[in-house]
Amino acid sequence: MDFQSIFGLDGKVALVTGSTQGIGRATAEVLARAGAHVLISSRKPDHCAAVAHELTEAGLSAAPWPCHIGDAAAIEATERHLKDTYGGLDILVNNAVLSPLRKIEDTDLGLFRKTVEVDLQGYWFMSAAAARLMAPRGGGSIVNIASVAALHPDRGLALYSTLKTALIGMSRAFALEYGAQNIRVNTLLPGLIETRLADKYDEATRQKMFSTMCLPRLGQPAEIGQSVLFLTSPAAAYITGASLVVDGGLSVALM
User: Fold this and answer.
1) Contact residues for 253 (Cβ-Cβ < 8 A; gap 6+)
2) Contact of 186 with 245, CB cutoff 8 Å
3) Could you tell me the CATH number of the domain that includes residue 121?
4) Across the strands, what pairs with 93?
5) What is the mean pLDDT of residues 189-213?
6) pLDDT 10s digits, 145-185
7) Number of compact structural domains in the chain
8) pTM (2 decimals)?
9) Plot region of 193 (φ>0 → left; ψ -120 to 50 → alpha; else → beta)
10) How far apart are CA 222 and CA 220, in angstroms?
11) From 160, 178, 201, 238, active-site residue
12) Residues 31-57 pLDDT 10s
């Protein structure tokens, strides 16, 4: 097999949630450069349109599709759109997220429910919809973006960390239930990546973390995208129910 047949995504349809910035934006571009047609999705239609335009201007295949994954009706509309327009789906990357910076005692019920609606409920029902669209095509790949916070909770991010831990269990359960339909479900756990979430750490804290990390630097969003490409490509055809840590060795330092 040549490189393109192992890592290429020609003819594949991919949906990346939360793909107008950060990890999602970079992942969408990586998948598009590998040959996939990528739907750029987030809550804001104008942002989706802008990113899709950037990618098509670069000669890549992309289209905007606004969707708030915390809204069940929006997920249903997305499933109909994918079926009617593309005949199904091959790749789903669940990346949209809420990451409230709150102490446990300051996390009220409203914020708790809103975060669960996006970070767990949304991932669950979007994945179930994707599986229905993938099965008639002979299979597909779902990648849920979690975080090393799932393994090592961070102060001020208790709810975020809790839901990312739950996401690992969800991915394993989906992998078990849909494996017979050749639908692979894996979890990717990024570490400290150069995104808005990393901005919560001041420079002194970053340097302290870098001093113990195996690779003492921030990860780049595209490096997460490249890992997603591996998990969604034929190269990972025998990988499902797995959790891939991409953190520059941060979790080693935290052990």
Assistant:
1) 209, 212, 213, 214
2) no
3) 3.40.50.720
4) 16, 143
5) 82
6) 999 999 999 889 999 999 999 999 999 999 999 999 999 99
7) 1
8) 0.95
9) beta
10) 5
11) 160
12) 999 999 999 999 999 999 999 999 999
